[in-house]
Design a protein that fits this description.
Number of strands: 6
Helix content: 40-55%
Structural class: alpha/beta
Oligomer: single chain
Shape: globular
Strand order of the largest sheet: 2-1-5-4
Order of helices and strands: HHHHHHEEHEEEHHE
Distance between the termini: 27 Å
Radius of gyration: 20 Å
Number of helices: 9
Largest sheet: 4 strands, mixed
Amino acid sequence: MATKALFNTVVNWFIRQRIDQIQNFMDHPIETQKGILFSQLFHAEDTEYGKLYGFNSISSYQDFKNKVPIVTYEDFEPYIEKARQGQKDISWPGYIKHFAKSSGTTNAKSKFIPISAESLEYCHMKAGKDMVSVYANNHPENQLFNYKNLRLGGSSELYADFNTKFGDLSAILIDNLPFWVEITTTPSKKFL
């Protein structure tokens, strides 16, 4: 039990370090959103979609509004299909290896949502870490990592097609969780 308590203390200390950054985002939401927008545009400027809409020439939010149209999933689907078939640099640099499959809300057809490695790390995984960071900060005496925590998700099955994987977002996340999450949660992904 002493080892678990030490592990809990160390993990809680690390995750609480994120609180200052989270507070900065809350204090400066517009600047944070603009920073993310322009970072994404910069990273995607040499993709097929980025070249089509001149991402490299966008220098203000107004430019973005004027140059990049609002589109439906059906409008964007041809780009997703190219990425699903293994083409690189379509809407994001490199190959997209994962696609979250929706349950189909319009046209009774499932949709494939591209999930890049960066999206997994800096959006989905970071959101989970941020949630735990806020909890640990608000409850400094927590014992989250002294015991196993229940992990819930949808279907854990991933399917392969065109050398990519697709399935429920929860299946993609579970398949890519860091090792320490496997140590602290149940059921183990080998049973999912």
